[in-house]
Amino acid sequence: MNGTTDDMTTTRAIRVLIADDQPLVRRGLALILTPDPAFDVVGEAGNGEEAVALAHRLRPDVVVMDIRMPVLDGVAATGRLAAELPECRVLALSTFDMDEYVVAALRAGACGFLPKDISPEELVAAVRVVHTGEAAVAPRLLTRLISTYVRTPERPGPPPRAQIGGLTPREAEVWRLMATGLDNTEIAEAMGVSGSTVKNHITGLFGKLGVRDRAQAVIVAYETGVVEVGRPG
Predict the structure, then answer these.
(1) Cα 116 from Cα 124, distance rounded (Å)
(2) The dihedral of CA 222, 227, 229, 233: what is its sign?
(3) How many helices (H) and strands (E) does the chain have?
(4) Fewer CB atoms inside 10 A, N or C side of the chain?
């Protein structure tokens, strides 16, 4: 049964909470994940308020969160979970690929997002990725989303530098390339370094920027003017 492999080389099952206001969607997502022993669907919620309450009680590893829900929407629920249960990772769901609410959810702390027309294999892969702490968003789609809905503040003077002044030149270059839509392999090729070196630079810049993941790092890049809005790479 799920979660009983403590003495084996594999880790325990990933505990998943599903939050969506449509019962049919919740059931469909659960039916995709439940047969796989790597997952344990611990609960279902019909709105954001219920999702937060159940997350506190059930302590899931991942919450698959619909963005648009009654009572408390998925963006607000994600923000509460990021503040109250930072070890719980949120995978946002949206009906549309290009949705400003997706960016709001990523800014609030979601570790990735999926459109609702995904395949079962894509859902399984995304839950696994989010559980590891990575961002489950295709790099170029992430950049296209953020460049569409995030705007550099219209203020006189230079862009804010408090967040970026401490970056090394290599970290700054990795950040810029990341924000133009390159994945780690492409960044390594562009810089002529190894993939592990890129990962080390990313870890360093995440810490200095005070962000949790790739999505939040790209949002900050656009907000501070590191990358110009409107023409992602």
Answers:
(1) 13
(2) negative
(3) 10, 5
(4) N
